[in-house]
Amino acid sequence: MPYALRLAQVMGSDSLRELHVIVSQAARLVLETETKNGLALLTRYATAVWDEKDIGAPPASGSWRHNGMVVCPCSMASLGAIAHGLASNLIHRAADVSLKEKRPLILVPRETPFSRIHVQNMLTVMDAGATIIPPCPGFYARPQTIADLVDQVVGRILDHLGIDHGLTSPWTGV
Q1: Which residues does dimethylallyl phosphate bind (predicted)?
Q2: Could you tell me the strand order of the sheet in which 105-109 lies?
Q3: CATH of the domain at 114
């Protein structure tokens, strides 16, 4: 969850950008387990917070315009649902809409190791247009803190959304 919190903090601090958040029941549990006041922190930066059961919310419609969607973290259950077009909640439906409308969809998987089924589902969503960004920071930038590692992953997510940030510097070679 540190990736989701940092992503929300960076995106939500830009007054020119809207941040819409959908938090599943499972994510709420993980937030409470891994962080102090995680849900409050996550939603503080949001323009709007949608309930995962609210299938009539704007993110469920292709006519609702946005610049990209990030599922962070993405459980293997959500990955499987998205890969197979099963819109059982607002997260899955919004991801399905992102794919059909050809809008950026980034999935940040939360699992290790991957099973063959997980990898097949990743290939399926990639073939449909999604980007998979595993939270695997590199050490070439010589991170000093856990926050540096988190920023590296969040920076890559923002790069793929075309959002400028100051979290990391581009690689300039050895």
Answers
A1: 140, 156
A2: 69-74, 105-109, 131-132
A3: 3.40.50.1950
